[in-house]
Every structure is written in C-alpha cells, then in structure tokens.
Amino acid sequence: MGLDTMTRADAIVIGGGIAGLSMAARLANEMRVIVLEAEGACGYHASGRSVAFAHFGLGDRIVRTLTALSLFEFREMESVSGDPIASVHPALHIAYSDQRAELDALQEVHDRFECAYEILQDAEIESVMPTLKIGPEHAHRAILDTGSLRLDTDAMLQRQMADLKANGGSLVTNAPVRSIANDAGVWAGETPVGAFGAPHLINAAGAWADEVARMAGVPTIGLQPRRRTVISFDGPPETDVSRWPFTKTVTDGFYLLPEGTGRLLASPMDQTPSAPCDAAAEELAKATAADRVETAPSLDIRRIAHSWAGLRTFAPDELPVIGESPDAPGFYWDAGQGGYGFQTSDGLSRLAARSILAKAWPGAALAAGITPEALSPSRFARKP
Ligand SMILES: Cc1cc2nc3c(=O)[nH]c(=O)nc-3n(C[C@H](O)[C@H](O)[C@H](O)COP(=O)(O)OP(=O)(O)OC[C@H]3O[C@@H](n4cnc5c(N)ncnc54)[C@H](O)[C@@H]3O)c2cc1C
Q1: Ligand 1 pocket, 89 CB below 6 A?
Q2: Atom of ligand 1 at shortest range from CA of 19
Q3: Angle between helices 18-27 and 345-356 (to 10 degrees)
Q4: What is this structure's pTM?
Q5: 163-221 per-position pLDDT tens digit
Q6: Which atom of ligand 1 is nearest to the CA of 308?
Q7: What is the dihedral of CA 361, 367, 370, 373, to 10 degrees?
Q8: 205 close to ligand 1 (CB < 6 Angstrom)
C-alpha cells in the first residue's frame, strides 16, 4: 500500500449509510474524519430502501429505549428548527382475538415509554382504518399510538452529510475499500481512488460489515443480512388515504403505510437470509405481500406499481454492535442496525461517537441498561 501517497485522517469510516454518516457527522466535531462509500451516492443500499417509520412495535428493551431517546431528539429538532425530518403519524397495531397476550405485552411497552395511545376494539378500529376486516378472526383489538413518527430518510441522510461537511469532515464516493492493512497502529484502506489511513477505522458497512472485518483480519461477528420486500399500489379509487395510520399486525403478518394521497406501501415483513448484495424484490415475496394485504385489509390490488427490497442486517442477538474490537485496537464496529437503523440513529450515533472518543456514555442510556458492554463486539469474542 503506498503509504507516501496515502490521504491521512484521524478516523476513516467505511460506509455512507445512516449508521456511518450520522456517527461521522458527530465525530467530525472532534477529529478529522473521512467517510468512504463504495457507491456513487450515499444511501444506495439499506438506508435508501427503508420504510422509515418510527414506532415501538419491534425490537427488545434496548432497541426500544434507543428508539425512545432518538424520537425525543427528532421531536426536539422539529420543534426547534421546523426541520422536516420527522412528522407525527399514527401507528395502529392490530391483533386477532388469539393474539391478546402479544397486544397486552405491547401495551405495557407503550406504558413504559409514556406513549400517547388508545385501545380500540372492533368498529372503533374500522373508524380509523376503513378497509380492515373486523372481527375475532381479523382485526379485533388494537393499539392506536398517536405519537409515532414518519421519518424522511432522504432529508436525514442529507442533513448528516451537511453536518459532516460543516464540521470539517469529508465524504469520498465511488470508493469501495478493497484491502485493509495495519502498519504501526495506522489502519490503511485501499480504494480505486486512492489509499486512506488513520489510527481509527470504523466499520459501518451494513450488510458487508463482516466482509470488511475479514479484509482487515479482524474476527467477524456472524452478522446476518435479511431481505425485506415492499410493494406500492393504488389505494381505493377517489379515496384520500394520506391520513390512514401505519397499520401493522402485532406478530408476523404485514404492514401498510400511506404514500401520498392515493398510494399505499405494504410489506409481508419477510426476513429471508441473504448474502450481502444489491437486493431485489422476488416474485414470491411480492405475491405474499399482495395476498396478505388483500386477505386482511380487503384492498383490491389491481396492479403493483412499484416494488423493492433491501437488506436489514442483524447480529446473532439482534442488538447493534458498537465499540472497539477486543482483538484489534483502533478497529471499531458500528453495525447490526437491523430493522431500526433510522429510528435509533440519533441515540446510536451518539453512543458510537463517544466510544471512539473514549468518553463516558450518557447517564440516561446507562440508567436504562444500555452500557458499552451490552453493545460491544466483545460479547461475541470466542472464549479461549
Ligand atoms: C425494506 C426496509 C424497511 C425498513 N424500515 C425501517 C423502518 O421503518 N425504520 C427504521 O428505523 N429502519 C428501517 N429499516 C432498516 C434501516 O434501513 C437500516 O437499519 C439502516 O438503513 C442500516 O444502515 P447502515 O448504514 O448500517 O447500512 P447501509 O445503508 O446499507 O450502508 C452501508 C454502506 O456501506 C457501504 N459499503 C459496504 N462495503 C463497503 C466497502 N468495502 N467500502 C466502502 N463502502 C462500503 C455500502 O455501499 C452502503 O452504502 C428498513 C430496512 C429495509 C430494507
């Protein structure tokens, strides 16, 4: 690797998705940061394919706490600057009669996080989501969370890129890192547009994060990318669907979300294991999405207007991986954001940046049990 011609910084971040950008923008306040993105534009992979709805219907206690901390900040940003990154939009979590226990557990979560919500039954559900089939075998009981947020992923990515630049950091696109070496404590990544080196290397490569570790000779985590499919179709004729809630079955099934006034998005909540790749929607997943939507909310999908798929990448315990590798000083992980990378991005980027700067984590996170140990890559270290 040509060390003489290498561009040097204090930290190199591999990956220009929401994870890499949001953490790099914070870090750039304190050190010289360069983000390397393989594609021609940021957000080409998972971050450009997200449905980006922030709610409490997924993840465990840690993920939900990270969501709550991030939502608080998103709401503050909106009220202080009028920034359009988030807008309040209701979420309707529906349960059939035999899913009462799951809905009760989700109600406890809404209580714990002091969400504004109502419990709806049968006809009350129909009044907020008119096309749902109602009854014990269909939507029978529901939680209507009136404080959940719809996120604007493009605005979020743009904002992080602007903050990165304003804080003195830089972004290099079309820069796939193809080899990594460590020479006397400096990590160096070789790309087709040159070599970049720094004492801190941050692996925010999403579905490719284990591949990046392998390139660097660092033990991998066992990350699993899982494909998720979304279809888009016209809503009922002459009906403004824009105020319909984000509607999700309390367990596996489907979710549905308005897109503008006349379109709906739906997903069968598939999670098919995949190798890291440019994911595409498969026919079976599209058909499953259409079938679940047609059998449950009684919508007539005449034509799928558009479809896509993306990879949600999970660690074996489905928690994010944040912190320094126990086997490789200066090599940091910011990976495993699963299906909640946007809704937790404010909290997670704060913690990731503090790990790299060797600063204590905020008291609110520690009090909620979100400790460096809980998210550290050390939890996967092989026992001798
Ligand atoms: C269909 C779908 C729906 C979703 N819905 C939601 C939702 O409602 N709410 C929510 O919060 N989250 C949601 N998510 C999850 C969210 O999108 C992800 O958690 C998040 O985007 C992950 O961000 P990331 O930066 O880790 O990954 P990515 O966005 O994939 O970024 C990783 C980047 O690393 C780059 N890279 C990889 N290897 C290299 C290399 N060697 N050199 C340089 N660059 C490299 C890639 O090109 C890529 O741009 C959804 C995801 C999908 C697919």
Answers
A1: no
A2: 25
A3: 50
A4: 0.96
A5: 999 999 999 999 999 999 999 999 999 999 999 999 999 999 999 999 999 999 999 99
A6: 1
A7: 70
A8: yes
pLDDT tens digits, one per residue of 77-103: 766 556 678 889 999 999 999 999 999
Q: Are 232 and 304 in contact (CB under 8 A)?
A: yes
The closest residue, in CA terms, to atom 18 on ligand 1 is 341
Task: Give every CB contact of residue 154 below 8 A, 6+ residues apart in sequence.
Answer: 43
Check if the beta carbon of residue 165 is closer than 8 Å to that of residue 157.
Answer: no
Q: Does residue 150 line the site of ligand 1, with CB under 6 A?
A: no
Distance 127 CA to ligand 1 centre (A): 36
245 CB near ligand 1 (under 6 Å)? no
Domains of the chain: 7-47+153-223+317-380 (3.50.50.60), 90-147+224-314 (3.30.9.10)
Residue by residue, what is the 3-state secondary structure of the chain? CCCCCCEECCEEEECCCHHHHHHHHHHCCCCCEEEECCCCCCCCCHHHCCCCEECCCCCCHHHHHHHHHHHHHHHHHHHHHCCCCEEECCEEEEECHHHHHHHHHHHHHHHHCCCCEEEEECHHHHHHCCCCCECCCCECEEEEECCCEEECHHHHHHHHHHHHHHCCCEEECCCCCCEEEEECCEEEEEECCEEEEECEEEECCHHHHHHHHHHHCCCCCCCEEEEEEEEEEECCCCCCCCCCCEEEECCCCCEEEEECCCEEEEECCCCEECCCCCCCCCHHHHHHHHHHHHHCCCCCCCCEEEEEEEEEEECCCCCCEEEECCCCCCEEEEECCCCCCCCCHHHHHHHHHHHHCCCCCCHHHHHCCCCHHHHCHHHHCCCC
Nearest to 241 by CA among 232, 228, 253: 232
For residue 361, how many other CB atoms are within 10 A of its CB?
16
- For the record, the structure tokens of 111 come out as 């209580």
Reading the block at residue 342, the tokens are 């946007």
- Taking the C-alpha atoms of residue 232 and residue 14, their distance in angstroms, rounded to an integer, is 32
Ligand 1 centroid distance, CA of 42 (Å): 10
Contact 46, 341 (CB under 8 A): yes
From ligand 1's centre to the CA of 132, what distance in Å? 31
